[in-house]
Every structure is written in structure tokens, then in C-alpha cells.
Amino acid sequence: MRESCHGTVILLLFGMCINALGAFVGVNLGTDVSKLPSASDTVAILKSHQITHLRLYNADAQLLKALANSSIEVIVGVTNEEVLRIGESPAVAAAWVNKNVAAYLPATNITAIAVGSEVLTAIPHVGPVLVPAMYSIHKALVAANLNSMIKVSTPQSMDIIPRAFPPSTATFNASWNSTIYQLLQFLNNTKSYYMLNAYPYYGYTSGNGIFPLDYALFRSLPAIKQIVDPNTLFHYNSMFDAMVDATYYSIDAFNFSGIPVVVTETGWPWFGGGNEPDATIQNAGTYCNNLIRRVTNDSGPPSQPTIPINTYLYELFNEDKKPGPVSEKNWGILFPNGSAVYPLGVTSGRATANSSAVYCVAKDGADEDKLQDGLNWACGQGGANCVAIQPGRPCYLPNNLTNHASYAFNDYYQKMHSAGGTCDFDGTAMITTIDPSHGSCIYSGSSNSSSGGGFSPPTAMGPSGQFPGASSKLKISSFQFMILVSFSWALT
Q: Are 130 and 87 in contact (CB under 8 A)?
């Protein structure tokens, strides 16, 4: 994560205790970052936001040292490159545990070891030695008398469940039956948990419109559109719950029970390329806020209502060095300076929306011509102060039409709604309680904004129809997409 706000600090309280206090939401920390903060600075950021659960993809010595005496519960990762050697040699496994786990205890609170990451789908040729590697790691822990405090598991993607809906009929890919049976037997015998990487973003974007966006974002659906398993008649209010339940049913198909599912990765990208329209700050903020609310209500999915879904958000910082599409580089919830990409509100261990504030933003997928007309009107006749979205200003990036229109629409609305101004803009705008502020771009109406900007509102009311006289005062290129990433601790 990254966050250190100028002005008011946005509290991000992700880590909640797993015991009687309820489920927790932790974070993943990837390191494919151009200017990753130092280990001590990273831990300071985690502590400042009261993040109490962290997953590392490796066993970074500097981070593990810096985490000492922080009380943060840590999952340490065996990298995919290490799995094969560990699976083939118990001696290598013992050496790995001594070097990467035992050496940091008890000061660093290591509670689990994740053996590889999505091994069965990412490096299938290593699949046959995955469970032997887990056994070797576990035996090394037993030898060091650490097995009671450190669990061993392995994160798997939803891709090993070919047909996840309806959940009640979901099963693991049959070609992996032998390995999965061994895996489940290991988890059952060692009283560990199944690690699941679940991404409704991909489920939605690859679904060709089968499921509505609201379903992926935890938004309530009208009765006629609710997702129901025809076999159990369970209602699924989110794709996240359906994915977790599909995993439980897949485990049950092997006649195992009592193995809890922990979601080791989930999230939503906040910026994407021109062919990734759903990767937006608005969607990412909605998903993550609603996820936190969902997880911290301490309930499980419909088939396992009493087993909370402990979850790790993907991810702390944008990993800009990752290959692939633009969205792959933009999952971070904080900038490396500690400032929030988008606000996540939590109070007393439970997420809450800022019900006292509403914002007027552009709808995702709105007609671009109408958006451009609305933007021109707001910055012209509407009297919105659009200086902040000019090049070099705090809200210029991401440089796309939706982002700029959202800022202009909101600036107009905050100044004019008390005088009858509307949030419509020819059907391209909507009201939200999610603060769209990000980084140093602070929207009017945010708890971080000092005032309405000292603007004397004009007499024009909010537009609700076409804009035949739209001003050309501000013309903005719709598709000059740029990545909103700053890797400097000086950024505020």
C-alpha cells in the first residue's frame, strides 16, 4: 500500500483480528515496483494504516527484519522458482525454513507459508511435486517445533475450477484429481486452510455480459436480476461469494469438510488501457470498500454461513514493472509515499461509507460525445473550476475523458446543487458516496478539501438535456491514457 496524505490523513484500517473479534482484511505486497520504499518505510506505512495482516510473495530478508516487533501477521512465500527444488529435496526444504522462517522468529510474526503461487495453472509441470514440497516444508517446521504456530498451504487460482457456476455443481479440473486430493488431505491433516485467489474483475470482463457489473462490485441487485443457484436456491449477492462457494463445493466433491477457504488475493484495477473500460478508480473504490464491508460482517458464503472469509487485498503498491496490459500495473491501493489511490473508509474495524458526502461523477461506459459536451458545458457555461484537470495540475492524470468529466461534473454539482443544480449531464453522470479523490487530486465535498474553492456560483442550473451551445473552452483528448503512478516519497 501507499499512503501519506498531505492535509488530513485517510485512515485505512485493513487488519482486523481473526479470532472472536471477527474476520480480517489484509494486503499483498508485490515488489515489481520501480521505486519501492525501503523496508522500514514500507512497515511504517503498514503500521500507520493499522494493517495487521500481510502476505509476501517471497521471503525478503529486509522486509522480514523490518517487520520485527510490529505484531503484523505475515504469510511468507516460497517462490515458484523454488518449489521444484524443495519438492525434490527435504534437505533443501529444511534449509529454506531455517533461513527464511526460523531465523526471524519470534520477533517477526510469521503465521503461514504459501508454497508457490497458482502453481497448477502457472507452472503445471511442477504440479506433481507441489504437495511433496508442502510436506517437506511442514516436516521442517515440525523438526523446529514451529508447526503449531505456522500453517502451510498453496494459493490456487479459480482457473482450476472450469465451471464455477452454479456453485453447487462446481468441481476441480479432473486432470488434477490426484494432486488436488493429496493437497486437500495435507490441509485436512495439518489443520491448515485452502488459499484461493479470486478475481471478480476477470470473471466479469471475461463473462461477455453474462453477469451484471453490479454483481461483481457487491452492489445489490433487483429481485428480477438476483443470481440464484438452481439446485440449492441460494441467492448470491456477489460474484466473490459465488467463487468462494464454488471452491467449498469443489472441496466437498472430494469428501473433505472443515477446510476453511482464505482468499489470498482479490481486488480491482483502477486504471487500464483503451480496451479495459472497467478498470477505473470508481470501480476499484467501490469494489474494495464493499469487499471490506462484506468480509468484516463475519459471515461466510451461503453454503458455509458460519465460516468468515478472511481476505487479502491485491495489492499494496502498483507494480509498474509487470508485463502485460495497462491494468496489470494498476492494482495498488496506495502510492509508495503512503497516499491513497482512492479512499477506503473503515471505522472501528468495520467499513463505512462517508454518508455525509455525495459526489457527482461520470458513469462508466457513458457515451463519449455526450461526456465531452457535458465537460465543455461544466467548464464553460456551468462555471465549474476546471484548473485542476489542466496539464501539470493535480487532477490531470489519468488523462482520459471519464476522469476529467467526473472532476468537472462534481465541481459544478457541489457548488450548484443547493440552488437546484442537478447531477445528470444528459444521462452521463451519477451520484455516489465513494469519494473519487485520489493522490493529491482532492474533489470538492471530500473531507480532505478545505472549502468549495472560493467560487461564486453562476446563475446557470444543472444541465439535464443536450448541450447545443456547449462551450469549447476546454477540449480534452479522450484517449491519451497515462498511468497515474508516482514513485517518490516527496509526492503529496
A: yes
